[in-house]
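[job 4417] fold queue: 2 targets
>>> target A
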Amino acid sequence: MVTFSSSEFRGGLLRLARPASAIVRGAMTFEDVVREHEEAVYGAVLRILGDRDAALDAANQTFMKAYRSIDSYDPTRPIKHWLLRIAVNEAITIGRARTRERARSAPDTDAVALPSRTPTPEAEVLDRESRDGIRAAVAQLPALYREVVVLRYFNELSVDEVASVLGRSSSTVGVQLLRARQLLRKALGTAGV
């Protein structure tokens, strides 16, 4: 049984009612995996969906699906990629449902309000306007391009890793990144992107 903590993101997306040690892969439990990758998963789905509540739901669903299908995980591959693939698929599913319903849509400014990973306050002040503009432009991209941009640049995966996560060829991902950058340049009105 899995229970959720939706009141706060930090401190754990989901809590396992039975001991997580029941699913030990090597010396790492599933609870350790959640703790290690919850920010990456949440960040990816938030950037794809642009809505904090929907992103929290998608992240929770991601870890629930991963927990249920842990036996299908190939331990020779990075678990982060497996989780991100589940997360992207879940975000797409939720995004499609939201598009049909349009009842719980949130402003795209929620995606812009993500805290920066910039280490110093001085750098944050200098880069804030540029980053906010880029995040807003990324949030406006079609889902096909937004997925590859989020995984490549925000999650810092290589093109081959993005291709693996999305189940596409590296050349397809490369073309999608090229087109996404063109759209971003156009949206930002600059050739420096």
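>>> target B
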Amino acid sequence: MQKDNIKLGIQVGDVMARDFISVKPETSVLAAIDLMVKKKVGSLIIQEKGILKGILTEKDIMWALSKKRDLTGVNSGDIATRKITTIRPSADIYDAARTMRKSKFRRLPVVIKKKVIGILTLKDMLRIQPELFEIARGGFKKKEVGTVIQEGICEECEKYDLIYKKEEKLLCANCV
């Protein structure tokens, strides 16, 4: 298999979110949940003195709830994903899409010498280069159901569902 070296000329640093939300590992999961709801984000960077320690996602919280119904006294660092794939700000977004596909993560902390400077999400990349979806999802193709309704990823909530085209955006029924 030949490795393709396609470059789009758009660097991760040009697309990443610089205003990411972070907490310390000792922050309680309940406080982290409150912050995620307040800030309307699906993940938090776990860092200490600027050094990446993990990432806490909605999926991590759901997993913890399935194991232990009461999360009182549980710290964010206890349940956060610690084995994290990161990316440099100078990397091309095509490489970021391939990294997401390989690691099966939709979020990549952007780091320089282990210090977090931003976060790149699949949603960020799709806003500027929708064609990267197929690369990041490993060849997934949208299935056309009709002219208005199709299967795919909602551009608002990132859930896979039947989606509708509204004002040039693809949205699920909840986000229309």
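[job 4417] complete. Note on B: Residues 29-39 form the longest helix (11 residues).
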